[in-house]
Design goal:
The complex is a heterodimer.
Chain A (H helix, E strand, L loop, with lengths): L11 H8 L2 H12 L17 H28 L6 H27 L5 H8 L2 H15 L3 H26 L2 H31 L3 H26 L10 H11 L5
Chain B lengths: L3 H11 L23 E3 L11 E3 L5 E4 L9 E4 L4 E8 L2 E6 L2
Antiparallel strand pairs in B: 1-3, 2-3, 4-5, 5-6
The chains are: A mainly alpha, B mainly beta.
Chain lengths: 258, 98
């Protein structure tokens, strides 16, 4: 007899309909967000930051806001041309996640004394990341599912997953807890993208060449953004997390050579 | 006459699989009823048990009530991936099946 609480005994269709649902999403996020207003529990105390650390953190948060706004705009637009109901429902949960990320990041900036976040973002945003955002939104405007899911859920999410995970390990306690909650969401977004695209590439292998061109175009922007983000965090080159390990491994699993 | 190398190669298949009682380890990124099937990865020095595999997509440790062997299929709920266990150079690895 199968055990309904053992996920490894699920059939593939049951597994997908379970995880691509608001029911699953509610119960998952409850685990790590309940009792944590703006992603942080009341028991977590502020650490004192020097002015230099505060300014560096504000710049980093401005860039995170650009990435999260790109994902919010893109994932909400993609619902309209998602290929099936499961994808539409999943993207609806992603839109909520991205909106929450933007909200907690803006809240953290307010805690750091930023009175006009839009102006700060405009002033401090990484140019490569802004170009990436524009390109992603062009794919969405063109209703190009493969390019949109690749740029957003594989490339952008992989970048965010790696940077946020690393930053959570070195940040002040409040920022770290907020970032850990975001990373938990990013696992779903990244996994959805890789799995959806993986299935699609098997069904339509000719898509591969087109996406490979997109990958080559976006690689520079992604790697520049990554390098700048870690520079802002003051991470020495020798201690930088292995984006190439995460990102290139993900694209290699999808069959893209580097 | 039995070839000892052949016998050694076949031995794991004949040996009954170990069973494991799973308990929650604090992993909180999936609905409560599924939480004991996953745990956080503690980095490259983290030693996986015979009933565990590392998800290559999201770096969460997947746990099973039975010892895992090559050919087994498991699911990573935190990133919604379907995985198959494969043996490479004597090491059991989880690979994504799309």
């Amino acid at each position: 007899m199968s055990d309904e609480s053992n996920p490894h005994e699920f059939g593939e269709a049951d597994f997908r309909s379970t995880v691509h649902s608001f029911e699953f999403w509610f119960e998952a996020v409850e685990g790590y967000l309940h009792g944590r207003p703006y992603g942080v529990s009341a028991a977590t105390k502020e650490a004192e930051l020097t002015e230099r650390q505060r300014q560096a953190l504000i710049t980093t948060l401005c860039n995170y806001c650009v990435g999260e706004t790109a994902a919010l705009d893109a994932s909400s637009g993609m619902i309209g041309f998602a290929p099936d109901r499961h994808a539409k429902i999943f993207l609806a949960t992603q839109v909520v996640d991205e909106g929450r990320h933007l909200e907690v990041l803006l809240h953290r900036m307010a805690q750091l004394g930023v009175a006009a976040p839009e102006a700060e973002i405009e002033k401090r945003a990484n140019r490569s990341l802004l170009k990436f955002k524009d390109r992603l939104l062009e794919f969405v405007d063109a209703r190009d599912w493969e390019a949109s899911i690749f740029a957003q859920n594989v490339i952008l999410e992989c970048l965010e997953f790696t940077v946020f995970r690393h930053h959570a390990g070195t940040a002040d306690p409040v920022t770290a807890e907020m970032l850990r909650g975001i990373v938990s969401d990013e696992r779903r977004h990244m996994g959805f993208g890789e799995n959806d695209l993986g299935r699609r590439l098997i069904a339509a292998p000719h898509t591969h060449d087109r996406l490979y061109k997109i990958k080559r175009e976006l690689d520079t922007l992604v790697l520049d953004t990554f390098s700048e983000a870690l520079g802002e965090l003051g991470v020495p080159h020798a201690e930088r997390p292995d984006l190439e390990g995460d990102y290139l491994a993900a694209v290699a699993r999808l069959g893209f050579r580097s | 006459m039995n070839d000892p190398l052949e016998t050694a190669r076949r031995a794991p298949e004949r040996r009954p699989r170990q069973s494991f009682e799973l308990e929650e380890t604090g992993f909180n990124e999936v609905p409560k009823r599924f939480r004991k099937f996953y745990r956080r990865w503690r980095g490259p020095k983290d030693k996986l048990a015979p009933n565990e595999a590392l998800c290559p997509v999201c770096k969460v440790v997947i746990r099973s009530t039975k010892e895992l062997r090559a050919g087994d299929r498991v699911y990573c709920m935190p990133c919604m991936s379907r995985l198959e266990l494969v043996e490479e150079n004597g090491v059991l690895l989880a690979k994504v099946i799309y």
